Amino acid sequence: MKKKLVSVILVLCLLILPYSTAFAADTSGEIIVLYTNDVHCGVDENIGYAGLAAYAAEMEAVAGEKNVTLVDAGDAVQGAAIGTLSKGEYIVEIMNYVGYDIVVPGNHEFDYGMEQMLALMDMHDAAVVSANFIDLRTGETVFEPYQIIDYGDVQVAYVGITTPKAFTSSTPKYFQDDKGNYIYSLSEDDTGEALYNVVQKAVDDAIEAGADYVIAVGHCGIGDDVKPWQSVDIIANTTGIDAFIDAHSHDTIPGEVYKNKAGEDVILSSTGTKLAAIGKLVITPEGKITTALVTDYTSKDADTDSFIKGIQAEFDELLNKVVAKTSVSLSINDPVTGKRIVRSRETNLGDLAADAYRTLLGADIAVVNGGGIRANIAAGDITFNDIISVHPFGNAACVVEATGQEILDMLEMGARNTPGENGGFMQVSGLTYEIHTYIKNSVKLDDKGNFVSVDGEYRVKNVKVGGKPLDLNKTYTLASHNYMLKNGGDGFTMFMDNKLLQDEVMLDNQVLITYIVDELGGVVGEEYENPYGQGRIRIVPFADLAPNAWYSDSVIYVYTNGIMNGVSLSQFKPDSDLTQAMFVTMLYRFAGSPEIESDEATWYSDAFVWATENGVIPEDKTFSPNAVLTREEMAGFLYRYVQSTGGGFTGTWMFNLEYTDKADICEEYYEAVAYLTMSKIFTGTSFNPDSKATRATGAAVLERLASVLAAAAAK
To answer: Residue 397 forms beta bridges with which residues?
Structure first.
């Protein structure tokens, strides 16, 4: 550590997952590597930088100051107002104060432009390393590929890796000269071999230079959207890496072991995001390595805390100024599950953001990439901080001319991962469209992740502009921001050479607040009440899902929220029978799939244990997993779930059922049917208590229950 921190406080909480392998080196004491990733300006969130400083001081007291190293794996300077207003400089100042030793640039370190990115890296007291960030004009790496730190008799090399996804998840133009030629590379190709080769060279060079251990610090991530540049891909195609500190995907990984190219074990770890955890890697004198995540740590270093508060005070007054109001909650998340959905389906905040661009710029159509909408806005006062948290990037509004074909290609590009996430998923204004997710993605990308063509059937269908079918040969006016329209952000290169009608007229956060104040009278109203938006984007996950079917939206809801799957990739079979095991599993998933200890091996065992423990399956009831549910039995399961959450009738109640066949409802289910009817989860003139429950009915009642719970939560 470069800076001496305050005195020792006892370690409160460590979640340790051990991993060990034999090494030849012998040290006089432990080497401790503390690591963070994807902090995204969360300077005082969760553990916070002051907590990190306090914990680092504790480790220095245990192992000695020279044996503790602090590492960041990227995406520190973007994500909140403190980063946006200072273009990342405040964050670097704080990181310098904490005393980082090694820093690796992530994709969002480029968000303020290449000039500012290089300036920020130069500001760091830490060594900045990246083995694959190359200046094509010189053929040399922009930063050192690795840094070796001497711990007495042991030397550890830290090899930096920056994801090639930065080309599209940041702004491609930043990597080009003024003629559009790429002058920087991240060692990208569609096989991953270019990246593997430069990493391998850095590792080999570090070992040749005397490194006893090699720790890869990679802003790489795990997931389909980062293949073939995943951290696990790099491990599998290289040798010599002893441990891999990962970032980018926001995964929380205490420690997982993967095989390298030679079949040797490599441990991989990642801390999540926003300093929810501190990573801890320990190399023992015996040559063993362990990883740990430090969570629930509450101590703060007073000096660091004071330093951060001093910086925050410089702009708090401006940030906390009330600039508008909203009568509804505006969200990027599903209000029931809490999961982020703005990158996979329509939300009310997505509608609002897109409406702002279309209205203020007077365009036919407006789009906003889901990855550019970063935070919720709670009902009540809206501050400048709220607005800038939604749009922290400072992108500038533009309008281009675009053909119908280009717009269709744009929508297809954005929908290629649906129902999975994609930062380029399009929230829209002025048009509506469907995404048929059962159709295989056929978008072709180049080696940098940029759009090339669509080589098969389009998943996006029934696109309408102003209520009329999209004309592929017609020219429309399209509003968004420079990231999408001028710079090829998220790989949307189809507009970069199009005619600009308006060029960078105002920043994204200015667009949003101006729309609310000037066009909505300073108040976001009931037209944006539905958290799932105004029905502009329709997900069609199955070929047998009729557009106008009464259950259509319900099936889409349960599918996109992971509550129900199809019976095949293209078939839902809405009229098929629903069994007890199926419905209990649906309720379990609806509840968020809580962690369960179960020795059973059936596909429904976790759901069964959960349902039994929570009274969804009563003790006096026999559970028959393969028995087809009747409608009144479904009502019983559903009502008992509601009761397990603290809902349902309490005390004396009275609700008169008006079903023509209410006399046929069994007494034990009457209360359940009454409550669910009162809540409008069940509707109709007859109930048909003994009729078989279908998959469509199961989807419908859970979608309606979600609406009831969301409305209750909003009060």
So the answer is: 481
Q: Which residues contact 417 (CB under 8 A, 6 or more apart)?
A: 224, 225, 344, 425, 441
> What are the distances in angstroms from CA 245 to CA 72, 215, 216, 218, 222?
9, 7, 6, 6, 12
Domains of the chain: 21-313 (3.60.21.10), 320-528 (3.90.780.10), 543-714 (no CATH)
* Alpha-carbon span 662 to 655, nearest angstrom: 12
User: Average model confidence (pLDDT) for the chain?
Assistant: 91
Q: What percent of the chain stands above pLDDT 70?
A: 95
Determine the pLDDT at residue 9.
Answer: 30
Taking the CA atoms of the chain, what radius of gyration do you get in angstroms? 27
CA angle 62, 155, 218 (to 5 degrees): 90
- Is there a contact between 439 and 325 (Cβ–Cβ < 8 Å)? no
Cα 479 from Cα 499, distance rounded (Å):
12
Q: What is the DSSP letter of 276?
A: S
For residue 127, CA distances in Å to 19, 36, 121, 132, 461 come to 27, 15, 9, 16, 50
| Per-residue b or e along 340-357, where b marks 16 or more CB atoms closer than 10 Å to that residue's CB | bbbbbbbbbbbbbbbbbb
**Cβ pair 79, 90 in contact under 8 A:** no
Please report the pLDDT score of residue 597 as a whole number: 82
Q: Which has more confidence, 13 or 495?
A: 495
Residues 6+ apart with CB under 8 A from 601: none
In which element (H, E) is residue 696 found? helix 695-714
Give one DSSP letter per residue of 444-469, joined into a string.
Answer: EE-TTS-EEEE-S--SEEEEEETTEE
Residues facing residue 454 across a β-bridge: 443
Indicate if the alpha-carbon torsion angle 494, 500, 501, 502 is positive or negative: positive
Output the pLDDT for position 170.
66
Burial of residue 611 (number of CB atoms within 10 Å: 0-12, 13-18, 19+): buried
DSSP string, 542-569: -TT--TT-TTHHHHHHHHHTTS---SSS
Cα–Cα distance, 223 to 127 (Å, whole number): 28
Q: What is the pTM of this model?
A: 0.63
Tell me: pLDDT of 348 over 70. Answer: yes
DSSP letter assigned to residue 406: H
pLDDT tens by residue, 520-537: 999 999 999 999 999 999
Beta bridge partners of 500: 400
Q: What angle do CA 587, 590, 594 make, to 5 degrees?
A: 90
Question: What distance in Å separates the CA atoms of residue 224 and residue 320, rounded to the nearest whole number?
Answer: 39
Exposed/middle/buried for 459, CB within 10 Å: 0-12, 13-18, 19+? Answer: buried
At 171, which amino acid appears?
T
| Contact present, 166 and 188 (Cβ < 8 Å) | no
Q: Residue 686: which of 662, 702, 650, 714 has the closest Cα?
A: 662
What are the respective helix, strand and coil percentages of the chain, to the nearest 5? 35, 20, 45
- 299-308 confidence digits (pLDDT tens): 999 999 999 9
